[in-house]
Amino acid sequence: MVALTFLTLAATAITGALAAPSAEAGPDGPNFEIGPHNLARRQGGMDYNQNYKTSGNINFSPSNNGYSVTFSGAGDFVVGKGWRTGKARNISFEGQTQQQAGTVLVSVYGWTKNPLIEYYVQEYTSNGAGSAQGQKLGSFQSDGSTYDVWKHQQVNQPSISGTTTFWQYISNRVTKRPGSGVVTMQNHFDAWKKFGLNLGSHDYQVLATEGWGNAAGNSKYTLS
């Protein structure tokens, strides 16, 4: 989730305050719950549903191997499907995203610990930038496109380890891909390392749809 620095992670140009969403437990309830001071994980095996919402109409429906979401008037949300595991993986996805208003992005999104890192591999960004901010370090080629690499420091922001200071690593795909594809994550990890961006132990990883700034549209994906 981006941060509270530009508008509101979302929220317009790139900001995002993390407010407490309403989350319900249950077989299809979120494994990821956000409180006013930290991000807390619920235990739940390999399946991982991310369901973060602040305002607007967001209808998120996770399945065994993917998710769908429709949204309108969204101030800030991040929903997706993935894994809570000790390793990251390549992700193959099939589906489509349509943006009608606001800022919308689709990314492989995850966290590591020691060091605490929030990372994005942005496959589709309606505004061309998504969460990319801070310092641009360079570019590299992967999966049929150029990716620009950014790093950005979040100061005293919510994280999976509580409110603290941490770095964001962001790969932004130049050729937007709102539909199907494969993300070879190792290529990103290798490129980040060359730019001096080190990761820690992997915590969780999802394919996520995110929106802010009165975002409207829809996404539907299956992944493996």
UniProtKB/TrEMBL annotation:
<feature type="signal peptide">
    <location>
        <begin position="1"/>
        <end position="19"/>
    </location>
</feature>
<comment type="pathway">
    <text>Glycan degradation; xylan degradation.</text>
</comment>
<dbReference type="GO" id="GO:0045493">
    <property type="term" value="P:xylan catabolic process"/>
</dbReference>
<comment type="similarity">
    <text>Belongs to the glycosyl hydrolase 11 (cellulase G) family.</text>
</comment>
<keyword id="KW-0119">Carbohydrate metabolism</keyword>
<dbReference type="Pfam" id="PF00457">
    <property type="entry name" value="Glyco_hydro_11"/>
</dbReference>
<dbReference type="InterPro" id="IPR001137">
    <property type="entry name" value="Glyco_hydro_11"/>
</dbReference>
<feature type="active site" description="Nucleophile">
    <location>
        <position position="118"/>
    </location>
</feature>
<dbReference type="InterPro" id="IPR013320">
    <property type="entry name" value="ConA-like_dom_sf"/>
</dbReference>
<dbReference type="InterPro" id="IPR033123">
    <property type="entry name" value="GH11_dom"/>
</dbReference>
<keyword id="KW-0326">Glycosidase</keyword>
<feature type="active site" description="Proton donor">
    <location>
        <position position="210"/>
    </location>
</feature>
<keyword id="KW-0732">Signal</keyword>
<keyword id="KW-0624">Polysaccharide degradation</keyword>
<keyword id="KW-0858">Xylan degradation</keyword>
<dbReference type="InterPro" id="IPR013319">
    <property type="entry name" value="GH11/12"/>
</dbReference>
<protein>
    <recommendedName>
        <fullName>Endo-1,4-beta-xylanase</fullName>
        <ecNumber>3.2.1.8</ecNumber>
    </recommendedName>
</protein>
<keyword id="KW-0378">Hydrolase</keyword>
<dbReference type="GO" id="GO:0031176">
    <property type="term" value="F:endo-1,4-beta-xylanase activity"/>
</dbReference>
<feature type="domain" description="GH11">
    <location>
        <begin position="34"/>
        <end position="223"/>
    </location>
</feature>
